[in-house]
């Protein structure tokens, strides 16, 4: 995407790093560069504002849910495997524990296909 106007920092570069900017995962010098870009480029500023609003909405709606400890451990274990360069198993992470599913494998309170 580009607004068609010349900028010191290209629109595509700004948008490529938009989520890092929203998550405060980039150096301050880059933050300043992108914020300067937003002051002169309304399409990029609009995209930034939209993504910022979505992030706030998700946090407000979903940020209070506790992550089950076993799921957290599985995810962190996979991240460690990936970082170490080891092979990652292709098995699915199950949603329901066996003790919560009935004999047909259905989870109480969840919709099933008929």
How is this structure best summarized?
The protein has about 110 residues and is mainly alpha-helical. It contains five helices and no strands.
How much β-strand is present in the residues?
under 5%
Secondary structure category: mainly alpha
Distance between the termini: 44 Å
Low-confidence segments = 92-114
Task: Let me know the average pLDDT.
Answer: 78
Number of strands: 0
Largest sheet: none
Number of helices in the DSSP assignment: 5
Radius of gyration: 21 Å
Secondary structure: helix percent: 40-55%
Assign an overall shape: elongated
Order of helices and strands: HHHHH
Secondary-structure blueprint:
Layout: H1 11-16, H2 18-22, H3 28-40, H4 42-62, H5 69-84
Organism: Streptomyces tsukubensis
Protein name: Mycothiol system anti-sigma-R factor
Domain Putative zinc-finger: 11-44
Task: Report on this structure.
It is a single chain. This protein has 114 residues and is mainly α. Among the domains are: 11-62, no CATH class; 69-95. Helices cover 54% and strands 0% of the residues. Residues 11-44 form the Putative zinc-finger domain. This is Mycothiol system anti-sigma-R factor. Pfam families: zf-HC2.
Q: Which key terms come to mind for this protein?
A:
mainly alpha; 114 residues; single chain; Znf_put; Mycothiol system anti-sigma-R factor; disordered C terminus; Anit_sigma_mycothiol_RsrA
């Amino acid at each position: 995407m580009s607004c068609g106007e010349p900028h010191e920092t290209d629109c595509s570069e700004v948008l490529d790093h938009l989520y890092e900017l929203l998550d405060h995962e980039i150096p301050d010098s880059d933050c300043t560069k992108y914020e300067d870009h937003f002051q002169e480029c309304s399409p990029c500023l609009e995209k930034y504002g939209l993504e910022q609003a979505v992030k706030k909405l998700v946090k407000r709606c979903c940020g209070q849910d506790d992550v089950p400890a076993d799921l957290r451990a599985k995810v962190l274990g996979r991240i460690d495997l990936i970082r170490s360069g080891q092979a990652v198993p292709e098995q699915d992470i199950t949603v329901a524990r066996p003790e919560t599913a009935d004999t047909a494998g259905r989870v109480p309170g969840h919709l099933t296909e008929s």
